Amino acid sequence: MAQDWNDKIESAGRMLPRIHQLHRNNNVVVSVFGRLLIDVTDIDIIKAHRYSRLATEEELSPSDTLPVLEALSKLDLGTASIDLGRLTVAHREKGGDLDAFLREELAEVLGTEQQMESTDVVLYGFGRIGRLLARILIQREAAYGGVRLRAVVVRKNGEKDLVKRASLLRRDSVHGAFNGTITVDEENDVIWANGTKIQVIYSNDPASVDYTAYGINDAVVVDNTGRWRDREGLSQHLKSKGVKRVVLTAPGKGDLKNIVYGINHGDINEDDQIITAASCTTNGITPTLKVINDHYGIEHGHVETVHSFTNDQNLIDNFHKGERRGRAAGLNMVLTETGAARAVSKALPELHGKLTGNAIRVPTPDVSMAVLNLTLEKEVTREEVNSLMDRVALHSDLRQQITYIHSPEVVSSDFIGTTHAGIVDGLATIAEGKHLVLYVWYDNEFGYSNQVIRIVEEVAGARPLVLPKRVPSAEL
């Protein structure tokens, strides 16, 4: 075991400069079965390869993928996200010359652009979701350069507003410290985060900000205040100079498109100036519901959400305009409503009228669970469903939205920081005839924020090409 470990460390160490070379020279990010190798150490590389045991008959070692990585570094590649694990396994099965194999598999990005044209992004609001969006945008800019956080718009709350907001970005009680450095330029209302200049703009009116005065043009404004949720309210942003599109981090009302990335993001067109990212729960459950409906058909079902408390609840008993939400969030389970089950049909019209839902707010700060109680058109077994969800999580085009776990020891805090929309807990699956119950964990803050950023990248034309291409979930 010691020698095996030493061999892995040596191979991983040899991979590091080649990973950086591909990123720096070609704007290529590599992964091992979806585990991205960005800002990694040799230990991180070994851990990523350990994950391959879930996707292959034999666990891959860094020494297995190193030859593929070395061959990639000699190709004239353009911007892409390339899976070393899948390429290594595919070449083993096919055989033949490695260089010729890679040229065939990666033909779409050979000799293409190595830089993405950057799109300006503005965050309107800087609360729980806004600050996580900022963290992800800063990381994504460093990874691909396709989206660039330029400004944050907030209402001023006192003399030390800028310093306090920078501190909240730097430290988070749930998600930990910011990965990098943050400095504050109070004179110019600027927060510098890992070299990214974030202009803080103080305004109470979304229609009156002149973003062009700060060099911001054709921006995507991400409204994470939740104050306006219909076309009329959100259209105020479009009156400001320098704004091209608006993305809302909440379910939209009226005729606005509710987008769950991975499900209906293809419905976005050039004429859609306002797009909504639905809710965290809708994003958490819709991908799994789509897979089940595609393979077995859903006649009807009920979604019960066990949801962490949020900022709109009271810390201690006090008046609240919402029913039950006035009671102390940290001391009670609070039964409340959720529109997530109904909202699923906006992304999956075939489920219209088939789902009901309720929610229970519980005294945890992050990570929630949805219990999907479904009646199907076909009879299923627990093993059959779990096997399907496992394959979807590893090999399908919903791999970023769905992951699968089969462990008797996991609890909610284990899923803080997941980038997936939902995590299917295989050990909790219940199946009897046409009756199926699935338990889906989701990080209602960070997992949802990643889904929002995917939409932002989609409307900005900044989503990197993923190779080898993933299999449509309906075909598995």
From TrEMBL:
It is an enzyme of class 1 (oxidoreductase). Residues 119-280 form the Glyceraldehyde 3-phosphate dehydrogenase NAD(P) binding domain. PROSITE patterns: GAPDH. SUPFAM superfamilies: Glyceraldehyde-3-phosphate dehydrogenase-like, C-terminal domain, NAD(P)-binding Rossmann-fold domains. The keyword Oxidoreductase applies. GO terms for biological process: glucose metabolic process. Its EC number is 1.2.1.-. Gene3D superfamilies: Dihydrodipicolinate Reductase, domain 2 (3.30.360.10), NAD(P)-binding Rossmann-like Domain (3.40.50.720). Keywords: Oxidoreductase. GO terms for molecular function: glyceraldehyde-3-phosphate dehydrogenase (NAD+) (phosphorylating) activity; NAD binding; NADP binding. Pfam families: Gp_dh_C (PF02800), Gp_dh_N (PF00044). Coiled coil: none annotated. The keyword Transport does not apply. Belongs to the glyceraldehyde-3-phosphate dehydrogenase family. NCBIfam families: GAPDH-I, PRK08289.1. This is Glyceraldehyde-3-phosphate dehydrogenase. The gene is gap1.
